[in-house]
Amino acid sequence: MSASPRKAVVLLSGGMDSAVVVAIAKSQGFDVHALSVRYGQRHTSELDAARNVAMALGAVEHKTVVVDLRSIGGSALTDDIDVPTDGDTGASIPVTYVPARNTIMLSIALGWAEVLGANDIFCGVNAVDYSGYPDCRPEFVEAFERLANLATKAGVEGAGLRVHAPLQFMSKADIVREGLRLGVDFGLTVSCYQADAEGRACGECDACRLRAQGFDAAGVADPTRYARAEGPGRLR
Fold first, then answer.
1. CDD domains under this entry (predicted)?
2. Residue 207 and residue 193: Cα distance in Å, rounded?
């Protein structure tokens, strides 16, 4: 009698990085329980994309949880603050940083993992090609795993909990290559901070720039749908 597949909760935003993480978890033999969070972000196109990605990559289930971070604001993604389009975030943490977002999302994933009896949580944080967010650093992931094992019944009485960040030290180009190797359809994903209702990207924000540069560096055609005809050409 074969062993049952291991369960994993995978945070899925609908962007390219989290789609690759779903594919990686699947390739490692996990039954993927995909989790998206509607936190008050500027648009819901990425959540539509998350649903499509979860279906395309064969997730066992896909759940969307609602958390109202717009009520506290403090970010260009959840407040009436313009999203920067000049490509220069400077040395400081950019205004697109959402206070405590990854902590909150991982906490929800942790709760669901306990309910499912899953010992593994996957997230798509990256410390190479990212925008300087403090909750994308390896120290954060390590600290949250310690917290998970201190603060839960599963951590104290069970087999322990592991937080996986498989993209942590990969460049965007590496992420593109890995996704293609694992059969990810990047055309289904939405990364733009201010995508329109149809999921078309602005081609100007930091997320669009990093995404386009990743495809360019990987030598792969960019499948992103842009709201403006010139698309990624203006990003370089």
1. QueC-like
2. 6
Burial category of 130 from C-beta neighbours within 10 Å (exposed 0-12, middle 13-18, buried 19 and up): middle
> Distance of CA 83 to CAs 30, 42, 124, Å?
37, 10, 22
Residue 236 lies in a domain: no
Q: What is the DSSP string of 22-45?
A: HHHHHHTTEEEEEEEEE-S-S-SH
Q: How many domains does the chain contain in total?
A: 1
36 is annotated as contributing to ligand binding: no
For residues 228 and 89, give the distance between their C-alpha atoms in angstroms, rounded to a whole number.
23
Does position 233 have pLDDT exceeding 80, yes or no?
no
Question: Is 9 annotated as belonging to a binding site?
Answer: no
**Does 236 have pLDDT greater than 60?**
no
Note down the domain range covering 224. Answer: 6-229
176: annotated binding-site residue?
A: no
Q: Is 205 known as a binding-site position?
A: yes
Cα 202 from Cα 30, distance rounded (Å): 35
**233 annotated among ligand-binding-site residues:** no
Does 188 fall in a domain? yes
Q: Is 136 annotated as a binding residue?
A: no
With tokens 């039954």, the residue in question is 31
Question: Is residue 218 in a domain?
Answer: yes
Q: Which amino acid is at 222?
A: D
Under 8 Å between Cβ of 208 and 172: no
Torsion-angle region of 29 (φ positive above 0: left; ψ -120 to 50: alpha; else: beta): left
235 occurs within a structural domain: no
Q: Is-above-0.85 flag for pTM?
A: yes
